[in-house]
Write a structure and sequence with these properties.
Strand content: 15-25%
Number of strands: 4
Radius of gyration: 17 Å
Structural class: alpha+beta
Strand order of the largest sheet: 1-2-3-4
Number of helices: 5
Number of domains: 2
Shape: globular
Distance between the termini: 16 Å
Length: 140
């Protein structure tokens, strides 16, 4: 149990959830250590922080953007932008997401795409590190 006022709290999860994260941490340990994550606690914390970031991005853009479709062959996710009434194709180019509408790597469509699990799954499958990964809790 963490000390009161330490800035930490305990959390109980099911055995299945614990085993999932433990196995994932062990499988990716070398890559995670290069990112400064050296413990299961640090790994779970970083994943929760990523989820918090995705939730913030999703809440910001969800009112006017939505996932429209996904093409596995080209690793393209299509985002419907209800403000501009356009469909943006987001593809991986040179290990980064690229928007075919804005012709950028940092537009609102890209931000929304990072909130979608399919995007992270594709990046993991292709061995591409996800930018924006929060590693402020290094060494845990």
């Amino acid at each position: 149990m963490p000390k009161k006022g330490s800035g930490y709290a305990s959390l109980t999860v099911s055995q299945a959830v614990y085993e999932h994260f433990k196995e994932s941490f062990q499988q990716n340990r070398r890559m995670l250590e290069r990112e400064g994550i050296s413990s299961l606690t640090g790994y779970v914390t970083s994943r929760l922080e990523e989820l918090m970031l995705k939730d913030r991005v999703f809440a910001r853009y969800a009112p006017f953007m939505e996932e429209f479709g996904y093409d596995e062959d080209s690793n393209t996710i299509y985002i419907k932008d209800n403000r501009t009434k356009r469909i943006a194709g987001i593809t991986i180019v040179n290990n980064k997401l690229h928007c075919d509408v804005d012709e950028k790597e940092d537009c609102a469509h890209i931000g929304f795409a990072y909130s979608l699990p399919k995007v992270y799954e594709a990046m993991i499958r292709l061995g591409i590190p996800a930018p924006g990964r929060i590693t402020a809790n290094k060494g845990r």
